Amino acid sequence: MELKVGQAKRLEGTITVPGDKSISHRALLLGSLAHGETVIENFLQGKDCLATLRCLRQLGVKIEEEGEGRLRVEGRGLGNLQEPEEVLDAGNSGTTMRLLLGVLAGNPIFAVLTGDASLRRRPMDRVTLPLKLMGAEIWGRQEGKLAPLAIRGQRKLRPLEYTSPVASAQVKSAVLLAGLYAEGETSVTEPALSRDHTERMLGYFGVPVKREGLTVRLKGRALLQGRPVRVPGDFSAAAFFLAAAAILPEGRVTVREVGLNPTRTGFLEVLEAMGARLSVEVTGEWAGEPVGNVTVESSALRGVEIGGEIIPRLIDEIPVLTVVAACAAGKTVIRGAEELRYKESDRLATMAQELGRLGAKVEVLPDGLIIHGGYPLQGSRVQSHGDHRVAMAMAVAGLVAEGETIIEGAEAIDVSFPNFPTLLATLTEEARGK
Ligand code: S3P
């Protein structure tokens, strides 16, 4: 599918965005392991979360769809998943594969997991390694590094004190989920704080998770109690519209009921440092997650230097941040972001290449990017590389570029934000009509 985006001067409106991808996955997974029912509202019906839903059904979990974004999950309790008859297909979703491996490690069944070509290239040893230390048997291509993977879990796992070499919420979550099946305390220490949705939702389901600095711990064999979960809007989806508002000459976008978990909102800190006019209002808490409204207005932006602990807190926003930086005055330097090479595409390479096609000046570093902002962008044909966030970031760039930008492979957007093209068209048309 091609997505065509014309230059727009103006983008205005108040919107909500679909439910958070990370939280939707976790609500399904924890709901499946809990006692009693979990009703999920505002579940993200993107391909990634639907892959988790399908896999859990194959594992014997009863999940009913009761309407637009409303699911009823009948929890099976810990250790009661059924052996799947067929291969589990995680599609494009790293979260599905890695978190499910953590859960499967504690169930005495055999399962095979695979995914699409992109997922089969992504490193799985970062989770298979600690899970093997806990007692799971796992086989895969390149000595367990790549999917397809086969796993045989154990009824009882060994607790683990794990120091993760990467700041990854997927690694942390896989180990914590496996830790639920271990007798004793399991801990994960990460080099910088990654998104903490698993810890928060475990707490919400009644499992105490202790945090000391960069270490989180839980005691295994605790009971999870099913609870209603209303999923906040996805901050990473909102970021595309917030970015667009900041860089267009007449932009003003408010996103309501969006998740404002500080482990996810590093992008707002960077926008602010670049000189963006923005306001944030926390209005409540949904299932242990802060929720509120964010407004961003058209702003004169300047380049910044970022790196260090903020990187995991804005990791999924770096593609669109690259676009913002291309529209800012001066140089932006992003360092310490080598993790981007292991996402749905090598996002350092793909963003530099595709933004370059529009005339942006982007240099690739081993662990980041240097963006020389302020060069005029010219509409062109660009590629998504099968990566939803690259596709949407390029659509935002297309709003600024003169003429028309055509994004090839735009169907990748369905992974996390199926109504993105419609919402973008609505906001730009409404603004044009004014
Ligand atoms: C996610 C964690 C992040 C993020 C991904 C979702 C999660 O990946 O990029 O989109 O839901 O835990 P890593 O844990 O690999 O950094």
Automatic annotation (TrEMBL):
It comes from the Bacteria. It catalyses: 3-phosphoshikimate + phosphoenolpyruvate = 5-O-(1-carboxyvinyl)-3-phosphoshikimate + phosphate. Pathway: Metabolic intermediate biosynthesis; chorismate biosynthesis; chorismate from D-erythrose 4-phosphate and phosphoenolpyruvate: step 6/7. One of its GO terms (cellular component) is cytoplasm. It holds the Pfam family EPSP_synthase. 3-phosphoshikimate binds at K21, S22, R26, S168, Q170, D316, K343. Phosphoenolpyruvate binds at K21, G94, R122, Q170, R347, R389. Its EC number is 2.5.1.19. The active site is at D316. GO terms for biological process: amino acid biosynthetic process; aromatic amino acid family biosynthetic process; chorismate biosynthetic process. Monomer. Belongs to the EPSP synthase family. Catalyzes the transfer of the enolpyruvyl moiety of phosphoenolpyruvate (PEP) to the 5-hydroxyl of shikimate-3-phosphate (S3P) to produce enolpyruvyl shikimate-3-phosphate and inorganic phosphate. NCBIfam families: aroA (TIGR01356). This is 3-phosphoshikimate 1-carboxyvinyltransferase. It comes from Ammonifex degensii (strain DSM 10501 / KC4).
